[in-house]
Amino acid sequence: MSPTDINTEPxxxxxxxxKKHRKIFVAAPDGRAFICDRCVGTAAQTVIxxxxxxELEGAxxxx
Length: 63
Known about the structure:
Layout: E1 24-26, E2 34-36, H1 37-62
Antiparallel strand pairs: 1-2
């Protein structure tokens, strides 16, 4: 992802503090959704946890 080049300062669609963060990224292919640098990190962490949830739970059950 790369920072937007839009003249109107976009707000993050995922948190209420969108403009307070340094970088705003385009979050949708059509360019109508935006995500800030803080939410990008949160989203990545959520995706990672979700992706490995079954493996982690399986390890606990087997162990």
